[in-house]
Amino acid sequence: MALSRTSLFLLVLLCLAFSSSSLVSAKNQSKLWRELAKAKREREADLVHGLPGQPEIKFRQYAGYVTVDESHGKALFYWYFEAQSKPQERPVLLWLNGEANLLFLEAPVGVGFSYSNTSSDLENLGDEVTGHYVPELAEKIFDENKKAPKQNYINLKGFIIGNALLDDDTDQTGMIEYAWDHAVISDGVHDQIKKFCDFSQEEQPTECIHGMNEYFDVYKIIDMYSLYTPTCVDKNSTSREQKSRIEGVAPKFFSKFEGWHTKPAGYDPCVSYDTEDYLNRPDVQKALHANVTGIPYSWTHCSDAMGSWTDAPASILPTIKKLIKGGIRIWVYSGDTDGRIPVTSTRLTLNKLGLNITQDWTPWYNHKQVGGWTINYDGLTYVTVRGAGHQVPTFVPKQSLQLIEHFLANRDLPKTDF
């Protein structure tokens, strides 16, 4: 069942325990209560009563569709998990890619179970996706809050992004330096790329492209997402070369290489395949109220549609600077065994911001073990997570939960072993 945008917003208001009764007239109050009743009916229709093979759980979950453009038949699929206790008092955590209400949203239209009934919308996806999801969504909310009436104000506190594509120039430079420093590529390949490639430019000379081809050849046999874990071997193939795609959006120059789009899966090395098999089961889709329109493609962990994203800015740093100045709390974290957007890339990128350091490089702890390192700047916290690849919670769930809990509570990670 598809929730209207109005209904979804009312649900968010309920989750945040806002009350607008003192702000509207009696007539508007009556209309509001009717909308609330409608939203409640739609919410209960989206309640997931159980999934095939799922063990008993102690929280409620909802799944379904949010209509974003009725005239073009566009809808985004969502999956919402309530906190186990007092969900109405907990913050709402929107996960785009603990003790919080957790909302997963498959965006943009054309990926996962999200759909559009207008074919041209899928073909022209690159014209619709207007930037890097989280910072630009935060910027949109930040800007709209300035002119929104009180009852429509969204209480955005901050955002946290991990192993994130932030700046094409430093992201790509850092990937090459990380690969050389971690003995992935030879001195010759490193030196050739360093000599002939200028990652501040989209077009590169032939010598640069030859070096990049050799760089990507290595990641056909090891996992770019996680340098030191096994790869998923295709049981139906005699070849060691894997077939799964790199998830997310690539810098414009790197996206021209086939090696950017083919890679071994993250650890659990076969989880992407297993997830695709599960979510394409008809009984699972029925339980999730998904694929109600019979979309003409299977659910996949990385959609081909993302390859048409052509209008992304080369750098999201101006947006981050703006939000820091506006008082939005920002955390950035990196799994330190990720080769896709490695710690080297993110450190080079954050240095471009020119922020004052308020607490220098310091270890943080998780149950008497070093969980990683952290550095605090004016308005931004950077955290590394030791032993984690690109999708950090997949590798170190306990440390990831600790990271999210401290972000939500606006507390520094522990500096002593406990």
From TrEMBL:
PANTHER family: SERINE CARBOXYPEPTIDASE-LIKE 34, SERINE PROTEASE FAMILY S10 SERINE CARBOXYPEPTIDASE
GO biological process: proteolysis
InterPro entries the record matches: AB_hydrolase_fold (IPR029058), Peptidase_S10 (IPR001563), Ser_caboxypep_his_AS (IPR033124)
The protein's name in its UniProt record: Serine carboxypeptidase-like 34
UniProt-listed PROSITE patterns: CARBOXYPEPT_SER_HIS
Residue runs in coiled coils: none
UniProt lineage: Eukaryota, Viridiplantae, Streptophyta, Embryophyta, Tracheophyta
Family note: Belongs to the peptidase S10 family.
